[in-house]
Amino acid sequence: MSRTKPDSRLRLGRCATGLGLFARVPFRAGDRVIEYTGDRISGEEADRRGGRYLFHVDADRAIDATGREHLARYVNHACRPNCEARAVGRRIFIYAKRAIEPGDELTYHYGRVYFRAFIAPAGCRCRTCTRRAERAAGAAPSRGGSR
Ligand SMILES: [Zn+2]
Description:
Number of helices: 3
Structural class: alpha+beta
Shape: globular
Order of helices and strands: EEEEHEEEEEEHH
Number of domains: 1
Number of strands: 10
Distance between the termini: 61 Å
Bound molecules: zinc ion
CATH superfamily: SET domain
Helix content: 10-25%
Strand content: 25-35%
């Protein structure tokens, strides 16, 4: 079993949607930030288990990061993220897409299938979508004024 070792470059912290993973050090675009570790299971087993912490490597393989020791599961979704997940052989790593400063929350795009299944129903709460919603609310004509 691959387990995530404590990583002094990263820390868990509070964010708008619960817990998130934050940078403690700067990363440059292209830097490998963390591996997505978890139980390596078949696509069939993934369908049976379900859940929010499945990473589908391809049609036949998935990684289930349900265990809390798997730190990469705390990297939240964002529609305009600062990281991206890439397969290297059978492993999944999360890389910096652009420069990341200490204190920045790490995010990557979870993909359209996951987005539709888990995020869209409740509404995406990433920074981009939250700002868009706030702008839309601010721009809406007021109705009736004060009560
Ligand atoms: Zn979003």
